[in-house]
């Protein structure tokens, strides 16, 4: 297993978001790493069945997740939706051999031990499968922002044949957690490069639509 004092050097490369995958890691080693990292936001750590994934998020990654989180929280505010932000909290279940840190996450309606919604900004591909990870953590819905597109997956209680490849999640065109959210509008505003302009446009469009409702 990589020692913490070697981790920083190994993650420094031309790509500011280098990813390291380490196999054969015990749950005890995983928890020891989390304890050593403490509240540091320098790395994102995920664990599944003895595989450890460590990512040093790039500025582009952090910008994307913050912009998406801003618009989601604007939606909660404008629609008076009760929510509890859980951010990049480390969620883990030893009995499921799974742990991870979403880019953003939320409990909706009531506060819970695990979030209802996990949001992931995908810059580099590969690594631990997030749908399998979140299925074990019993997260109801997972959103992926990748290549200027938003993909939405909702967890089904059973895993019918057609959802085996997505680990029991069904890919949807709209959110079941937030059924009134216009995903096309959200995507359109996320593609606006200026964060302030994006937030203002999203808020204005929401307010106009709520007045007509």
Q: Which structural class fits the helix and strand makeup?
A: alpha+beta
Helix content: 25-40%
Topology-level CATH name: tt1808, chain A
Number of helices: 6
- Spans of at least 5 consecutive residues whose pLDDT stays below 50 are 1-5, 11-15
Radius of gyration: 18 Å
- Strand residue content: 15-25%
So what's the overall shape? globular
Give the end-to-end Cα distance, rounded to a whole number of Å: 56 Å
What is the number of beta strands? 11
Summarize the helix and strand pattern as letters. HEHEEHEEEEEHEEEHH
Mean pLDDT: 90
Strands of the biggest beta sheet: in what spatial order? 4-7-8-9-10-11
* CATH level 1 name: Alpha Beta
CATH architecture: Alpha-Beta Complex
Biggest sheet record: 6 strands, mixed
Number of domains as seen in the coordinates: 1
List keywords for this structure.
11 strands; five-stranded antiparallel sheet; alpha+beta; 23% strand; 33% helix; globular; 213 residues; tt1808, chain A
What would your notes on this structure say?
- The strands form 2 sheets. A 6-stranded mixed β-sheet has the order 4-7-8-9-10-11, with helices on both faces. The protein has a 5-stranded antiparallel β-sheet with strand order 1-3-2-6-5, sandwiched between helices.
- It has a single domain, classed as tt1808, chain A, CATH 3.90.1570.
- It has helices spanning 4-10, 27-37, 59-78, 130-136, 183-190, 195-212, and strands at residues 19-22, 44-48, 51-55, 83-85, 91-93, 98-100, 104-108, 117-121, 141-146, 149-155, 169-172.
- The protein is of the alpha+beta class and 213 residues long.
- It is 33% helix and 23% strand.
- The protein has 6 helices and 11 strands.
- This is Putative restriction endonuclease domain-containing protein.
- Residues 28-183 form the Putative restriction endonuclease domain.
- Pfam families: Uma2.
């Amino acid at each position: 297993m990589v020692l913490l004092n070697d981790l920083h050097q190994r993650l420094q490369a031309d790509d500011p978001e280098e990813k390291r995958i380490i196999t054969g890691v015990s749950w005890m080693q995983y928890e020891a790493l989390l304890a050593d990292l403490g509240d540091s936001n320098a790395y994102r750590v995920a664990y599944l069945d003895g595989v450890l994934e460590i990512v040093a998020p790039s500025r582009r990654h952090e910008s994307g997740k913050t912009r998406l989180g801003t618009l989601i929280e604007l939606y909660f505010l404008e629609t008076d939706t009760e929510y509890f932000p859980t951010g990049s909290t480390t969620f883990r279940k030893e009995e499921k051999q799974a742990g991870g840190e979403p880019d953003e996450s939320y409990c909706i309606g009531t506060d819970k031990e695990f979030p209802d919604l996990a949001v992931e900004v995908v810059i580099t591909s590969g690594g631990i499968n997030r749908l399998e990870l979140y299925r074990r953590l019993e997260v109801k819905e997972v959103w992926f922002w990748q290549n200027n597109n938003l993909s939405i997956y909702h967890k089904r209680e059973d895993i019918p044949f057609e959802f085996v490849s997505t680990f029991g999640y069904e890919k949807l065109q709209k959110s079941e957690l937030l059924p009134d959210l216009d995903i096309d509008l959200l995507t359109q505003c996320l593609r606006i490069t200026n964060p302030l302009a994006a937030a203002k446009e999203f808020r204005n469009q929401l307010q106009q639509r709520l007045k007509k409702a």
